Amino acid sequence: MIKCLIPKVVATFLSLFFLFGLNGQASAFTNQILTQGASGDDVIELQARLQYIGFYSGKIDGHFSYGTYWALRSFQQKYGLKVDGQAGTSTKQKLAKVSQFDKNFIYSNLSAGNTFTYYGGVPLNQQVKKKNKGQLSAGDGGNSRKNQNYSVNHLPQGYSQSDINLMANAVYGESRGEPYIGQVAVASVIINRVADPRFPNNISDVIFQPGAFTAVSDGQIWLTPNVTAKKAVMDAINGWDPTHGAIYYFNPETATSAWIWSRPQIGRIGKHIFCK
Amino acid sequence: MKRSYWIILCSILAALMVGLGIWANQEHRAREAVMIQAENHYQQAFHELAYYVDSLEESLGTSLAMHSRESMRPQLVETWRLSALAHGAANELPLTLLPFNRTNEFLAHVGDFTYNSGVKTTGNRPLSDKEYRSLQKLYKESMSIRDGLRDVQSKVMAHHLRWMDVEQALQQKRQNQDNQVIDGLKRVNVQATDYTQSFSPENPRNTVFEKQKLKPLEGSVLSPDQAATGIKKWLGVPKAKIRQIRKTGKGSSTSAYEITLINNRTKKPIHASITRKGGHVIWFMNNRPVGAQKISFYEATKKAKRFLDQHRLPGMELVKKDQFDKVAVLTFVEKRKNIRVYPSSIRLQVALDNGEVVAFDESDYLFNKCDRVPLIPKMSEQSARRQLNPDLRIQETHLAVFQNPLLKNVLCYEFFATKGHDTYRVLLNAENGDQEKVELLRD
């Protein structure tokens, strides 16, 4: 998929290049303004160009991170531009004028998953560390290749990829038949428990606390979660809590514990009743 | 002929029976082994808990004998470590369905207290009277919890009680059976409850949901219909169908209506929560699929700002930008006299296919009380800077109000600094220079 996309992307870029080239705008960038948090081909070019003239030393990954932000700011300062950390028209023009961008080199290395840099004045073949073939087959092959183009789903502060996967597993095992909002609610309960002093203070301990989740007890947590469950987890992590701070929930049709009914209830979402 | 037929049949049956017996025996043994392993795991966790609480009590007692903070510090750090271990062991027991909460809360308290007075506080100012009293209270409490746990422990040992039975008993409908472990732990819990109540002004984390701490809302109390009309107008979907309106129960920290609308155009549900008093939108989520990305991230931030202006939430500053899939997740904070008020924040999600705001959350903005925060720093920026590692390159400095783990709003100097490839956010208290938070920013 990516492989067949790249020629297209390159073609679009080349056509844009000629278009703008003819108009006298010396830039291969599209005309969008780049700001921190953005990702995509323009960011790859921005990072590559900043690295070429020595402002950016991080990874060229297409994600406008803090590293890119500081690099862009110091570039703007050095060249007397307005220092705002955004790549607008004048910044991009200036950057295109003073740097180079070897699209073939960058994209071939990105899609091969190589470790590489792109400093001006250093021979390109000295800047590539080829990815180990064996490593590729041992890892998650196609998947990593897809992500290496540029990582759109970078992680929220304080969470690891395995935390998110584990939560998606738990949410899917617990509530796969529920409406989307009910899945966000279940993910919120996990997060609320991490924050609560009466419960363990990390994701995996909360999920695997004995008897805490039926999906863990009966092994349904090991089903493969779908995209909806993952999205629900991301929404909960980003701060949407449909439960107003609930730390318990139960299905009134199957709950056997008498104690759970004594908790002050907050509300019902789908099949579950959420409570404090 | 017939007879030999019978003999063959019988011997086959007999062989089958024997085989079945052997197989069943093996299964039984395997099951037994798993049960014993699980039981041993629970036993280990419980005995560890008892041991750590024991050491904790001793450690708290020892620290009472010391005077200066410097001399007390190692003992407080040791207590902190033990409280974390005990908390971990307690959470490995199958007690989620038993009101053992308060013991966990006690352990969390000890952890918070010892961290704040022993680790975080700099300098050698002696413990204040208040801190000393808290320490004494915690010590007294640890004694009664220890006694309770030791009591349960001796019963478990003497009567060969099994945690697997506890687990089963807890999952049954009626809990008033005669299970000595459960009874014993309930007794421990009652004692801890007394303690928590007497301690509650100091009880830091539970205050989050205490009503008087939330910012009181303005406006009159709405009927469900008024709330539904209000949210439709607010969202700009006057023709949406109302599928459901529910009032939150008494466990909720704020009284609100949960409303589900069906968008007449997309036929997808929109969920929203509106406060009964004043009809403020706490959050909404429009659960529609997002198409291919058509607008840039920068345009998305513009759309989000326009959305806030339209809904009379001006003067917010965009501080955090993330992209997940084809959705931009943006966090805005209130600005007061050019100071970022972090606890008072709003989050938005903008779909990158057409720039629509698909989710919104202002619970922090609505409920976090941030008045009475001094907005004038006592320390100069220069003297705060001197506390930073000289290897750090400071890129940006702001004044910001930060809510620390004790839920106190403090005025801080916020430094964005870099070292190599890494970016750090350092928050230094603008009053006394305490380091409130250091964060390694990953993206």
Q: Can you tell me about this structure?
A:
With 276 residues, chain A is mainly alpha-helical. Chain A is 50% helix and 6% strand. Chain A has helices at residues 2-23, 41-52, 66-78, 89-98, 103-112, 133-138, 141-149, 161-175, 180-195, 203-208, 214-217, 227-237, 258-261, and strands at 115-116, 128-129, 248-250, 265-269, 272-275. By secondary structure, chain B is of the alpha+beta class. In chain B, 45% of the residues lie in helices and 23% in strands. Chain B is built from 10 helices and 12 strands. In chain B, strands 1, 2, 3, 4, 5, 6, 7, 8, 9, 10, 11 and 12 form a 12-stranded mixed beta sheet that branches. In chain B, helix 1 (2-64) runs antiparallel to helix 2 (69-90) and helix 1 (2-64) runs antiparallel to helix 4 (129-159). Chain B starts with a helix and ends with a strand. In chain B, 36% of the residues are buried. The model of chain B is unreliable at 195-212 (pLDDT under 50). At the A-B interface, helix 3, helix 9, helix 12, helix 13 and strand 4 of A face helix 3, helix 5, strand 2, strand 3 and helix 8 of B.
Name a few traits of the molecule.
heterodimer, A: 276 residues, mainly alpha, three-stranded antiparallel beta sheet, 50% helix, 6% strand, elongated, B: 443 residues, alpha+beta, TATA-Binding Protein, Nuclear Transport Factor 2, Chain: A, 3 domains, twelve-stranded mixed beta sheet, extended
